[in-house]
Amino acid sequence: MNFKLSLFVILFCLVYSAHSQLLSIKDELTQAPIKQASVLFQNSNKIVTTDEFGQVYLGGTASERMIISHPSYSSVLVFDVSTDTIVYLSEPFLEIDEVVVSASKWEQDRSEVPNEILSISAKQIARNNPQTSADMLGQSGQVFIQKSQMGGGSPMIRGFSANAVLIMMDGIRINNAIYRGGNLQNVIMLDPNLLSESEVIFGPGSSMYGSDALGGVMDFHTLRPSFTDDKSFESHGTGMMRFSLANLERTGHFHLNIQNKKWSNTFGVTFSEYDDLREGSNRTSKFPDYGKRFEYIKRINGQDRIIPNGDVNKQRFSGYHQYNIMNKLSYRLSNESSLTYMLYYTSSSNIPRYDRLIERDDQGVLESAEWYYGPQQFLLNALTFANYSSNAFYDGIKIILSSQHVEESRHDRKYQASSLRSRTEQVGVYALNVDLDKKISSRSELYYGAELLLNGVSSEGQKTDINTHLVSPTSTRYPDGGSVYASAATYANFKTRLNEEVMFTAGLRYTYVHLKSAFDDRSFFDFPYDEIELNNDALSGSLGAVISPVKNLRWNLLFSTGFRSPNVDDVGKVFDSEPGSVVVPNENLSPEYTFNYETGIYWALANRVTLDGTLYYTQWRDALVRSPFTFNGQSTIVYDGVPSDVEALVNVGEAYIWGYSLGLSAKLSRHFVFMSRISNNDGEDQINDTPLRHTNPLFGHVSLSYRSKKLTLEGYTDFQGKRTWNELAPSEQAKAYLYTTDGALAWYTLNIRSAFQVSNELQITAALENILDKHYRPYSSGISAAGINGVISARYTF
């Protein structure tokens, strides 16, 4: 009897397993698993959702007709599943605005978030083919990008830039203690080819992310590991090659994921090389020579010579190369827990700072023979523990231990000078993040956590005689005795559905910041202090509501506060020069705050047309603005042999910024989609009655695309409005050589790009950008944009 019973059990298990097929849902282009996809069984009306690995077991329902759907993809009808099956979903012609986002550090339904949010998927990145992550953000038409050189890109978000906007990667703060207040080019350290998605949360994010998030948060998510359901190993990956004509770009990318039931490892690498950038040749008749590079400096036989440029539209010297490497090793401790170790490293060649290479002295002679950033090196190590088992304290918890090592350097030499000045900074960053999610009821959820952060900064300076190679000391960029910047914070964010029409959110964060910098060497400058020490704290908050009176209509209301404590660059920058002025340290700085009021609307009409818009007003109090200052009682000092007006960052009192963003998407027919986006902002320093530096002119993006199963074809225009000379901030007027006498000119480009799916594995993309070969220079930029440019790439997925 026992034998017969055992045989029956074995046969039953075999029969059951034969009907317990595994269904995997993946993205058609990226091969990434799609979690929270819904599987509806038409016969039984049963609905199941895929897990975080994009998988679901079908059991005895495998023979039913199933509808597989997800808000970000087109639905698919699947018939009998007789074996383990992979179903690929593709994006719809008109993307519905219902995707999950990370505004709370945890994924949630976008329709429940009152913030204005930009989401960029891996599909969009592959289709748009950006050279850098800065270009990726700029292609959206919602983030304005400034460039001081080709190897850069400084996002401007709602009138803020540099250290007033926060960069996050996989839950880790990337901003460090020496992020400066001018334009900041560090976002290109993040490789778009190694991202699964990116999000921009517009407006103050301090209630969730703390200091620096005045204008917004850029949240980047790298490729995610995936697992199989058995012990056998599987692998998948992507290889990509791209060539661009305007700067002779050569980019190669490869990433590979190897996984089984317990282990998963994702490795990726990208190498890019760029020659000097060719700008557009079609200029306005009023400014026919604007932006032309007539001559450059070259060292010949030990002498600096000014050489005529054979091609005035070729911006010598602007080329560089960069590489990025990432590895993520993940171990599945159980169905609810995982442990992931990530290593991310990026470095570059020397990167010429083009705007300084075209600067001229009072006699009209090129001023700098050399001005370049040394290799920008960034190393991140992170260990993440995640658990999704429910208990009294959380339904999900993430603990991240991370360390960063950053090395930056600046090198410059005047024309006909033999001394090359070099300043090198090293920053070590150590952080602990604990984030928790607890579902209080069917209508309410709580997100809470804590962060500890420590920055250590060292700074060195030297001069090298390029003829004799003798090295001598020079002043450092930051205090030579070293600096410490540390913070501790705790936060809570609550959301609840008051009824079917109203979702209410509230957030609160307390942050404490300590800064100490020591000045040891007085041989170069007689500082009136030995050290600078600051201790600041702040309570940041937000209140928001999402009101949905009818289906597909949302009205958002949001009040939020922002906070930024001065960092080492603000307080202790020893000396930093710009044309005609020198910036000195200021030990009497206090935090700056913003108070943001915004409202927005989203309306989807019959799944064919979507309209969205946001209007905001931001009060900026105790704003850090560069203003006239004194050093040891003097308002003018000689710096680098040049009489220079003394300036420093000071808390000016109050400023304001207002702006709007509008979007329209329309599915014109089965194959044609129209999309447009326009953004604008303006602001004023109310104490000095002057414009603010990082508010940008009106800009946007309009496109008409054709999409079929194999082919995507898109024609589009990018544009910028003008900003007159009187509308420029004083710091921009000081850089007159970057502008015309009319200020920043308006411009537009005409472009076309396409993507052809040759097979399930191979995709070819091609683009022709700036077809009219127009010369234009985006507002505040030190280098002109590319002229007519051909781009072609091949992407193979296996």
TrEMBL record:
Identification of the protein by name: TonB-dependent receptor
PANTHER family linked: HEMOGLOBIN AND HEMOGLOBIN-HAPTOGLOBIN-BINDING PROTEIN 1-RELATED, TONB-DEPENDENT OUTER MEMBRANE RECEPTOR
Gene3D superfamilies: TonB-dependent receptor, beta-barrel domain (2.40.170.20), TonB-dependent receptor, plug domain (2.170.130.10)
Signal peptide residues on this chain, from the entry's feature table: 1-20
Family: Belongs to the TonB-dependent receptor family.
Entry keyword annotation includes Transmembrane: yes
Topology of the protein relative to the lipid bilayer: Multi-pass membrane protein
Lineage top rank: taxon: Bacteria
Keyword tags: Cell outer membrane, Membrane, Receptor, Signal, TonB box, Transmembrane, Transmembrane beta strand, Transport
Transmembrane portions of the chain: none
Record PROSITE patterns: TONB_DEPENDENT_REC_3
Compartment(s) of residence: Cell outer membrane
Domain TonB-dependent receptor-like beta-barrel: 265-771
Domain TonB-dependent receptor plug: 110-217
Listed Pfam families: Plug, TonB_dep_Rec_b-barrel
